[in-house]
Write a structure and sequence with these properties.
- Keywords: Signal, Transport.
- Pfam families: Peripla_BP_2.
- The chain starts with 8 loop residues before the first helix and ends with a helix.
- The N terminus is likely disordered.
- The strands form four sheets. A five-stranded mixed beta sheet has the order 11-10-9-12-13.
- The longest helix is centred in the middle third of the chain and has 21 residues.
- The protein is an alpha/beta fold.
Length: about 325
């Protein structure tokens, strides 16, 4: 669950970097990709000359870490990452990968010791990543990022750096086709059922994420309508006390924050559903609450997993 103090969107984007770190030895470098070639990339920091077939890549944002894993490339080092924002097999794949700090607290010496030939991350406004220090170690690409749905663009751009454009395009096409299929097949239920993305906090409040949030982006792609409590939010959650639970009453279905690794709500969300007022909500009485395993999809593989769960567990019941 994201820290309630990080309400602004940019703060939430940064917070996704901070949850659960990994440590250990570096993985075996991936084979060189056949279509990789030297290129100059235009970034917010100016043009960057990217080597052909980079083999030792350090990632400084979950978006770029998962983009590489999506196309079969494991970084040799990564910033601390959140298990809530990637598939369980990706969390396992990173179990032996050294961490190089968190957010703007980067261990430049650790990065240098890994001898990377490319550093790639996301530039969230207001955070100083020490670009000059990073670029002195290896070519550094920091993709501009301002909204949750930037993971789509960052995925494609990052895969292109390592010559895996065909692989990411296959994933993107599969996602777009599946989203279009669900939008068509379940159009009636989606049209009549406003949905809410809901999470609870351990301080006795709850929040709703909007259409431009991580999970909201996927729901928007299948044509979902949003309940009023979520529709008014661009991305990051608004916060309410439990006495405000009637705000959920126009939601025909509620998707709750869960973990990619099990079927339970997160701890703060469990506190929410244990409240007596919770049981009086129409969607709760109608049995239309669902734990969304991948509440924060940040890559195509995880977004496809969201579509799988929606198709199997949610959409047929709308």
């Amino acid at each position: 669950m994201l820290d309630k103090t990080l309400r602004p969107l940019l703060g939430v984007l940064a917070a996704l970097l901070l949850v659960a770190g990994c440590s250990g030895g570096a993985p075996t470098p991936e084979p060189a990709a056949a279509d990789a070639a030297p290129r100059t990339v235009q970034t917010g920091d100016g043009p960057v000359e990217v080597p052909a077939n980079p083999q030792r890549i350090v990632t400084l944002h979950n978006y770029t870490t998962t983009a590489l894993l999506d196309v079969g490339v494991t970084p040799v080092g990564t910033i601390q990452v959140s298990g809530a924002t990637m598939l369980p097999q990706f969390t396992r794949a990173l179990s032996g990968v050294p961490t190089v700090g968190q957010n703007d607290q980067i261990d430049y010496e650790k990065i240098a010791s890994l001898q990377p030939d490319l550093i790639v991350g996301g530039a969230v406004p207001g955070i100083d990543y020490g670009y000059d220090k990073l670029s002195a170690i290896a070519p550094t690409v920091m993709w501009p990022m301002t909204v949750p749905a930037d993971w789509k663009r960052v995925s494609v751009e990052t895969a292109g750096l390592v010559g895996r454009t065909a692989q990411i395009e296959e994933l993107r096409t599969r996602y777009d086709q599946r989203a279009a299929d669900l939008r068509s097949r379940f159009a009636t239920g989606l049209a009549r059922t406003p949905v809410a993305l809901v999470l609870g906090y351990d301080d006795g409040t709850f929040g709703s994420n909007g259409p431009e949030s991580w999970g909201g982006t996927v729901l928007s792609d299948i044509g979902a309508r949003f309940a009023s409590v979520s529709a008014g939010e661009d991305a990051a959650a608004e916060y309410y006390g439990y006495d405000q639970l009637p705000r959920l009453d126009d939601a025909g279905a509620i998707l709750l924050e869960g973990s990619p690794e099990d079927d339970r709500p997160t701890a703060g969300t469990q506190m929410l559903v244990d409240q007596p007022l919770w049981r009086n909500r129409p969607a709760v009485r109608d049995g239309k609450t669902f734990v969304l395993h991948n509440f924060y999809p940040l890559h195509y593989g995880q977004a496809l997993a969201v579509l799988d769960q929606l198709e199997q567990e949610v959409l047929p019941k709308l």
